[in-house]
UniProtKB/TrEMBL annotation, chain A:
Belongs to the CPA3 antiporters (TC 2.A.63) subunit C family. This is Na+/H+ antiporter subunit C. Keywords: Cell membrane, Membrane, Transmembrane, Transmembrane helix. The chain crosses the membrane at residues 12-31, 40-58, 70-91. It is found in: Cell membrane. It comes from Rhizobium rosettiformans. The keyword Amino-acid biosynthesis does not apply. It is a multi-pass membrane protein. It comes from the Bacteria.
């Protein structure tokens, strides 16, 4: 935290810090947003922040560590798979709820 | 890249992320999420991680964006507009305090780790033994092939999980038609799909091949294939197949099965997932091509969602 | 080399100016149709200029051919999506000729 600006510049800490803030933003949105689709989006932002921390700390002066890169690619694919499952569950839940309360327009979101 | 460029990029990332998370309208939120994903891709370019940049833009921004837009449209049809709603003040303040504290902790620990290329020194001298030059592909398919093998099964498992959400009576069936309902729009999208699908196939095949030595690989290529399939389905060029078609199921398991078979055959050469001397590149290319096909079809079907009860015309066209 | 660099700079600058104009139109114009007008005209020209600059900067014919392909598909995609957006907007607007088959009344 007592690093001068030039150290941040050369070391690629800037991206890692951005990743840390992204994790915090995403977590905050995940807690305060009520709609599950918005929470799903928040989880994706948290994931992106974690990937950025992971990848940017592997940035050396003349090469980037291929190991975290491979991990991040794996992570991105797993994240999209779980997002697909989450989105399908959210839609399915809304369908079930809509079928349970036919023709009632005031039931947009109930308690979870 | 200069420090000023990096700084502006990071600020834009935080800005788009903030809007994506907190804007009231769900479609605007998703649009900003896609912009956020593309900017993230730029940071990966800045970090000289082109493989990740391709994956982030194609999967993180592209496929996830389409997924969220489709989910939002389906919710909207049910009368749920997915806007933000009020949260109690105590919850917001508590969450703010907790998250701010967490960010400070995380930032402090991040700053305590000096960035360095770490295992690049270890991986680089091992690459000639594989016969390929892309180090990330080397890690994915040789040094940590175990992870990638499991990942391909995770993807398959996610599709099984999505399919298991099919309502009673819908199984085995097709996913909801993602096609445009308006006839002129369908024609426009159809022309684009007819053009794009063959191009996407060629492009994807090239990305796999290039992935041995240049940035690219099975996951990026699979996403390109999935994108082509989805655009073609939106224009009605191809119909989405019924979930019990044998050809479809073969395409889904082909990649993981071939990967597993080659991995098991490696036991004869010294251990699970060990490639025999001199055959590494050939085996990696075989695995990547089969895996790419399975990933493409799986991703497209993941986006399309679970089978729905057959309400419309049951036309027996499909893809294979 | 400085002659080439100058051409690249001029093309890039012009391209960015068109992008800025298109983005300004997107932000300032009142309805979807005129926003589309700004985007499709100005941004496509901007894209062409930037692609040309990149192709010249790349210096090799193979690189230029790749950039030309990228440009071609970006333009086709832009044309397709703006057609779809325009049609959607027209469907959503209340019009006397009821050729409407929109499943959901409200958009965005």
């Amino acid at each position: 935290m007592d690093l001068p600006l030039s150290d941040i510049l050369s070391a690629g800490h800037l991206y890692a810090l951005t990743g840390a803030v992204l994790v915090g933003l995403g977590l905050y949105a995940f807690i305060t947003q009520r709609h599950p689709l918005r929470q799903l989006l928040a989880v994706n932002v948290v994931g992106a922040g974690i990937f950025l921390i992971l990848g940017s700390l592997g940035r050396g002066p003349d090469a980037t560590d291929p190991f975290p890169q491979a991990l991040v690619i794996t992570g991105i694919v797993v994240a999209v798979a779980l997002t697909a499952f989450g989105a399908a569950m959210i839609v399915r839940q809304a369908e079930t709820r809509a079928a349970a309360k036919p023709a009632a327009d005031d039931n947009a979101r109930g308690a979870s | 890249m200069t420090f000023a460029f990096d700084l502006i990029l990071c600020l834009m990332i935080l800005g788009t992320a903030g809007i994506a998370l907190f804007v009231r309208d769900a479609l605007a939120a998703i649009a900003f999420f896609i912009a956020f994903g593309n900017l993230m891709g730029l940071t990966w370019l800045g970090l000289d991680a082109v493989n990740v940049a391709l994956a982030e833009i194609a999967i993180g921004a592209g496929v996830t964006g389409v997924l969220l837009i489709l989910a939002r449209a389906r919710l909207l049809a049910l009368g749920d507009d997915a806007t933000c709603s009020g949260t109690p003040l105590w919850l917001r303040l508590g969450a703010l305090a907790a998250c701010a504290g967490f960010v400070v902790l995380l930032a402090a620990s991040v700053l305590s780790i000096p960035p360095e290329s770490g295992l690049d020194r270890v991986v680089a001298p091992l690459m000639p033994g594989l016969g390929i030059e892309n180090r990330v592909t080397g890690v994915l398919l040789a040094f940590r092939a175990y992870d990638t093998l499991l990942e391909s099964f995770v993807l398959l498992g996610a599709l099984v999980a999505v399919w298991s959400l099919a309502p009673a009576g819908a199984w085995p069936g097709r996913p909801a038609d993602p096609g445009m309902t308006d006839a002129p729009m369908r024609r426009v999208a159809g022309t684009f799909g007819q053009l794009l699908l063959p191009v996407a196939l060629v492009m994807a095949a090239y990305l796999v091949w290039a992935g041995s030595d240049l940035p690219g690989g099975a996951f990026q290529a699979g996403t390109v294939l999935a994108g082509g399939l989805l655009v073609a389905a939106m224009g009605g060029t191809i119909g989405l197949p019924s979930s019990d078609r044998p050809l479809l199921r073969a395409a889904l398991v082909l990649g993981p099965a071939v990967f597993l078979a080659i991995g098991l055959a490696g036991i004869a050469a010294g251990g699970l997932l060990v490639y025999p001397e001199g055959m590494a590149k050939a085996l990696i290319v075989i695995i990547e091509y089969t895996l790419f096909l399975s990933i493409g079809v799986t991703l497209a079907l993941l986006v399309a969602g679970p089978p729905v009860p057959d309400a419309s015309h049951p036309n027996p066209e499909g893809k294979g | 080399m400085s002659g080439t660099d100058l051409v690249v700079l001029v093309l890039l600058g012009a391209g960015l100016a068109f992008y800025a104009a298109g983005s300004l139109g997107l932000l300032r114009f009142p309805d979807t149709a005129s926003r589309l007008h700004a985007l499709t005209k100005a941004d496509n020209l901007g894209l062409g200029l930037v692609a040309l600059a990149a192709a010249i900067y790349g210096g090799s014919l193979a690189m230029a051919a790749k950039i030309a392909l990228v440009w071609l598909f970006a333009v086709i995609a832009a044309g397709t999506t703006s057609q779809l957006l325009a049609r959607r907007t027209r469907l959503d607007e209340p019009r006397p000729d009821a050729s409407d088959s929109a499943p959901d009344g409200e958009a965005r």
